[in-house]
Amino acid sequence: MASSPTVSGRNGQPTGEVSSASGSLAVMVTATTQSPRREAFGSRNVFILSAIGSAVGLGNIWRFPYVAYEGGGGAFLIPYLCALLTAGIPLLFFDYAIGHRFRGSAPLAFRRMHRRAEALGWWQVLICVVIAVYYAVIIAWAAMYTWFSAQLTWGPGNENDFFFADFLRSADVREVGVSTEFVPQVGVPLAVVWVIVIVIMGFGVKRGIGRANTVLMPLLTVMFAILVVQSLFLPGAFDGLDAFFAPNWQALADPGVWASAYGHIFFSLSVAFGIMVTYSSYLKRKTDLTGSGLVVAFANSGFEILAGIGVFAALGFMAQAQGAEVSGVASSGIGLAFVAFPTIVSQATGGSIIGVLFFGALVFAGLTSLISILEVIVAALQDKLGWGRVRTTLTVSIPLAVISMALFSTTTALSVLDTTDAFVNAFGIMAVALVAVIVVAWLLHRLPALKEHLDRRSSFPVGWVWMLLVGALAPLVLGYLFVSEIIAKTSEPYGGYPAWFLGIFGWGMAIALVVCGVLLSLLPWGDRSHAKDDPSYDEFLAVEHYDPDPETSAITVPATTQRGADA
Ligand code: PFF
Fold first, then answer.
1. Does residue 553 carry a pLDDT above 50?
2. CATH superfamily label, 40-170+181-524
3. Which of 187, 357, 448, 476 sits in a 20 to 30 Å window from 539, CA-based?
């Protein structure tokens, strides 16, 4: 952070000059625009759409319905709303404030907050690396299932075996170790997924990510709406809705239900992944951060509730068709998507349409989340190395695609995916969120400055309540969740997998992320890095730091720099 009136650019050359004239403060900024200006979203709406695109992912479609059903059905709305209002939205604002205030990818933004905090950013980047490599393969499966749905490839009645034995050719890690046997029907679509995201990422924030979200999000919404309406017309749909919404008030007395509401909301809103820090760094200086955050949060919740209705209506149909209870057929995750849904597709009239819409929605929701997570990694490297967009995208994505193909297009993909997902969520995302709020609130005492930043440019002020929620409630809840996860995962081997396997893909991976995050933060930032030379941040600081009220004071910025600054 600049604390002197001279804003330094490349090689320490002064680039900003502050002068005060006749009572009003005028800021003259003469930037040396040698390095490319930081990218930006085309407009606030595109940012909102992209943030919703990131938040609405597989979690909304296959996780929320079951979490809500298990957590008391209609009564779950209470812990869910509490979690959303007291933790989800406040932490979303926290990420926005950091990204927007410090205008950088996660490592750079944390570094600008405090030199030692940079490791937090790299930890988030590495978490994103792990998630990206397995998230891509689920999109590839869903893409294949969109195709299979059209012709009921699995053969009615054979949905379970088709998925595990015929499609994945799943083998047991206890018997074969980590396999290298290539499964082409997974590997080929996985390669295609990587090519698609690499092309989108290569086009950059405005023309790649912004445009992809502008096309995919409306499409996803329409497809999803049709899917839900069609599910509601299935026989038995209302039994499913009844099971989903029937309130079980006793569930509210169970602390585990509250914990699952909080755990779900962090994941659902994509907070603490570094995604929202990165995306908000691409917003223009004057923007309504809290207003945007509310739109994103409520749109995300709207999607979840819609997914709950669609999924349970379809499960109600399945239960009726099988003469079973809804509780007997309800499931989540991979079992729901790749076994229960294909069964529904086989049995319902017009099932193929339901299948194409459902799996197509998974593909679109997954793609918009995957590009957001890749952006965390690409932006971090771009900031650090000062490279161009295409070069950085290829340098990041090609090795990731290779790792993703090597680990997840083989016969042991499912076990590796299951383990890395469970551990990276518990000891990656939840842990980094916990450490970040403690560091920022209690060690660096930055909450008042971040609150001020949010309040200065937003449609409604967050006030001291926000500081209390982020500084006190969030560490308590996250701490509780973290300790319960440690207890759960140490009391018995996760998923019954062998110790060596959990040691590598579970504990080892989670610990490696922290260690490598710290090591990466020790690498020096070269002269070409954006920490050293970033005209847009220099201007931002000059205006931020010296102008008490940016809305009303006279700000003199040369036309050439002004155009880009608020782009
Ligand atoms: N909110 C996202 C979801 O519900 O799936 C979380 C997420 C996961 C975002 C994976 C991005 C991602 F790559």
1. no
2. Amino acid/polyamine transporter I (1.20.1740.10)
3. 448
